[in-house]
Amino acid sequence: LSPDEDGICSGRYFSESGLVGLLEQAAELFSTGGLYETVNEVYKIVIPILEAHRDFRKLTLTHSKLQKAFDSIINKGQKRMFGTYFRVGFYGSKFGDLDEQEFVYKEPAITKLPEISHRLEGFYGQCFGEDAVEMIKDSAPVDRRKLDPNKAYIQITFVEPYFDEYEMKDRVTYFEKNFNLCRFMYTTPFTMDGRPRGELSEQYKRNTILTTMHAFPYIKTRINVIQKEEFILTPIEVAIEDMQKKTQELTAATNQEPPDAKMLQMVLQGSVGTTVNQGPLEVAQVFLAEIPADPKLYRHHNKLRLCFKEFIMR
Questions:
Q1: Which of 26, 27, 93, 290 is deepest in the core (most CB within 10 A)?
Q2: Cα radius of gyration rounded to whole Å, the chain
Q3: Could you read off the pLDDT of 1-17 as tens digits, one per residue?
């Protein structure tokens, strides 16, 4: 703030009680929004002010609100609803400035892809005419040359928050994994001959990591993507990732408190008694039957063997 501007410091909020009032309002809104952990952060600023004024009545109120917030964290646990995220790309000169721009949209917790797809199609259909808007159904990279210049194309992909391994040390709780997010990932399966899916030995995967300009939750529900990184996983790396995921699911199901037999049954059927021939047995037969000829693959081969060791132990 620049103090030489007239009247900037004389507004009713520009006082200690004004600040406390605004912070209390913020805490109420965070509480309504289900972000109970942030209620604590806001009151950390308020409490020393109330203590300095010996305002015990307000301190009592504040602490009871804090107790409510902490109770909510304990009682709601994993049932809390945070956002669902989608990457939306716009293609076509009809979009003007938006052409070739990508955004991450934050939607209410249980939004399905068809819902947001339908909404955006309807919205831009009203802007440009229904015939002029087309949704791109896959998440493969868009080839501009194949697009009709008179149409507006929208590509929507479900994305998940992405964290590096070191970040996971600090993001322990469900809230921490859903707050202050600016990196998201989606995966696109592909094979060298152009089909999205193929045999295990020819199944590649492209992991795309997007970085947004600001972190979610934010004032706006969509934020520009400012950086895009792509990693290609070879078939054996895809198999390693799948095995690690199955092992994690098994670990979670066996350590669940209280135990849930149905959940365990489902996980076991999905990881051992797979009806499709893409189960662990198939993976072992394809990749571990013989030692690879290429020395570059030794590391992956060993890693996959270790994954199986862990899996069998679970």
A1: 27
A2: 25
A3: 566 666 667 777 888 88
